[in-house]
Design brief:
There is one protein chain. By secondary structure, this protein is an alpha/beta fold. It has 2 domains: 152 residues, Alpha/beta knot; 65 residues, tRNA(m1g37)methyltransferase, domain 2 (Trp Operon Repressor, Chain A, Orthogonal Bundle), CATH 1.10.1270. It is 38% helix and 16% strand. It is built from 9 helices and 9 strands. The strands form 3 sheets. The chain has a 5-stranded parallel beta sheet with strand order 2-1-6-5-7, sandwiched between helices. A two-stranded antiparallel ribbon has the order 3-4. The chain starts with a strand and ends with a helix. It binds ligand JFE.
């Protein structure tokens, strides 16, 4: 996959994208990445301006549409593949694993990062999709773009076992992960659950599934609406919810 980013801070990507998994993916040629400076397409003048005051008044600055328009044209033309153009914004659709999986099947992405109070409304027309990484306001689109690249890159075939995870993931789809343990078997009085040392793989599988359901019921009950649970598993989830309710009543 090829990923291009348009930003006024291209240098912040280089460090993150050369480290760890992303660096290895690039080294293997599975991920091509290029960050472009939006100011290369700034309004001509000494200040290389990319922003201006908002029409209608109000605080802060808004990013002008012309540099983004010119950048999308020029960067798109650097490769024959047609990119999926993604605008990072708090007003976008939420980034979910399902959306990450869909984006991972594309050959090319072009990510647009704003700053200041955001972008002129006409920049939205350049994008195929607007994506938010969560309901909090960051100072620009660069961190969201890095989050998106990381989430997509680890799914690319050959990157980090980007294929063989399917069996385990379908087992727990829509649930939080079960608890993991490694050595030592006993740590400051906390022991690894006996079941994991038993060698009884059917029992381990049942225990992990139950733990995943209980965790999800505790921290993310909203996810249970979309999860495929048996009647017995629904009962486990309800049990965990009633424990939460009695904790609440006791003020804990
Ligand atoms: C930009 C900003 C004031 C935004 C209400 C460009 N998930 C997510 N959180 N924050 C962003 C994305 C994000 C993305 C792009 C951005 C924030 N800002 C800052 C300032 C109001 C804003 O929108 C500018």
């Amino acid at each position: 996959m090829r990923v291009d980013v348009v930003t006024i801070f291209p240098e912040v990507f280089d460090q993150v994208l050369s480290s760890s998994m992303l660096g290895i993916a690039r080294g293997k040629g599975l991920l091509e990445f290029c960050a472009h400076d939006l100011r290369d397409w700034a309004i001509p003048g000494v200040h290389r301006q990319v922003d201006d005051a908002p029409y209608g008044g109000g605080p802060g600055m808004v990013m002008r549409p012309e540099p983004f328009r010119a950048a999308v044209r020029a960067v798109s033309a650097l490769d024959a593949r047609e990119p999926v153009v993604v605008l990072m914004t708090p007003q976008g659709v939420p980034l979910t694993q399902r959306l990450v999986e869909r984006l991972a099947t594309s050959e090319r992405m072009l990510l647009l990062c704003g700053r200041y109070e955001g972008v002129d409304e006409r920049v939205r027309g350049l994008a195929d999709i607007e994506v938010s990484i969560g309901d909090y306001v960051l100072s620009g689109g660069e961190l969201p773009a890095m989050v998106l690249i990381d989430a997509v890159a680890r799914l690319l075939p050959g990157v980090l076992g980007g294929e063989d995870s399917t069996a385990e993931e379908s087992f727990s789809w829509g649930l939080l992960e079960y608890p993991h343990y490694t050595r030592p078997a006993s740590f400051e009085g906390e022991d690894v659950p006996e079941v994991l040392l038993s060698g009884d793989h059917a029992r381990i599988r049942r225990w992990r599934r139950e733990q995943a359901i209980r965790r999800t019921a505790r921290s993310r009950p909203d996810l249970l609406l979309g999860a495929d649970l048996t009647l017995d598993e629904r009962a486990i989830a309800d049990d965990e919810r009633s424990r939460a309710t009695s904790r609440d009543k006791e003020g804990l």
